[in-house]
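Forgive a beginner's question, but would it be possible to get any protein sequence you like and the tokens describing how it folds?
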Amino acid sequence: MLNRASEASDMLKEHIEKNDVIRIISHNDADGISSAAVIANALAEEDVQFHTTIIPRLKQDIVNQLRHEKYDLFIFSDMGSQFIKEFNSFKHDVIVADHHQINDTEAESNVVHINPHLFGIDGSKDLCGAGSSYLAVRDLDKKHLAYFALIGAFGDMQYHGEFSGVNKLIVDDALESGTMEIHEGLKIVSKASEPIFKSLTYTFSPPLPKISGDLEGAREFLERMNLSYGIKFTDMEDEEKDLLKDALVSINPNILGDCYTIPKEVPLLRDLEEYSYILDACGKNKKQGLGLSIALGERNQALDTAVKLQRQYRDQIVKGLEWVKKQGAEQLNSIQFLYSEDKVLKSVMGTIASIGLSVELLDDSKPVIGLSRLHNDIKISGRTTREMVERGVDLGKALQDSSNNFGGSGGGHDIAAGAMIPYKDKDNFLHLVDEMVEYQLTND
């Protein structure tokens, strides 16, 4: 895989030497914004001009439109593996740095395709889109940008107490470059910017059952220990911090773990996981340009705006989890589903499906399908657990095959996937996914 990445670096070098303007197309989530950031920062350091577009999904009409743009090199990051056939007929060079599921099309000489699945590596836990993008620029002496790949990996939920696979190599690069450090600490969010009860409420990874996503639950938890819930964690006395630490560890031992930090960053972006949440909030609020500008070095007003978006987004997640607590999920034989036409809930459906599983609001023995109506279509977000994947569940395949049956499109990873289908086919689609998951579980 590193040899393939070196081919991408060589292709990049050629275009850098020619002073070509380079076209970057990336995904709009935390991983996608980090993917664009690692490439854009590498190019900016080489004094090369680039034009970046960040989109929610790559579709055929966008590919057709790009074909006619007059750039000599296109880079697709955190997307593109499903369109290798189309890129093969481009008159330009193309680098695809992706980690989503692949098809059988071989890349022609004008296309360098970096994807862990091509090399038997799991793209849902061992390498993210930003990781593939980092590998594409790594040989240009860019190890100091490795931490962006890890921001993407946190955003893609690839950290489970440690990093695995190629992500480990990237951790080594980041440490070796001196830009990143690792130290043990409490993995609660917004320690310096939110009152402690909100910090605990907004901490979803690792999950704190009856506290994560539950403002009242967080307040009661702190009151039981006679701790003030209105002050920030950073303002607490050492004795209070120790008391809180022991209580949280008894709920989830993983709450005490390795914190990955960039010591020279501003406090709000120092923790890589926190950085990923800020980029994610920008993407979820359709302000992906703001996220990219922060990753390219903008601070002050840009960061203030992003933190407000993050707070708003987290409040939407809390509202969503309260809704899940009241409503519960609709049950089928092998899956469960959440459906809403509420504007706020629709915007966080995939996130509340994922968190709902981890904080035990939903049955973790069944994948959860979140459905959001968009006029005549329905957007699908599927989430499951690592244990269910080990039992045979592949949501990427189930959603791709099911959506194709209704003229829709879908795909993703075994553990998290998405799709778009016509609204009229909602019930038939759900029953087909249910049958497919049942088949996967009984035929593993």
Observations:
- The chain has a mean pLDDT of 94.
- The longest strand covers residues 368-374.
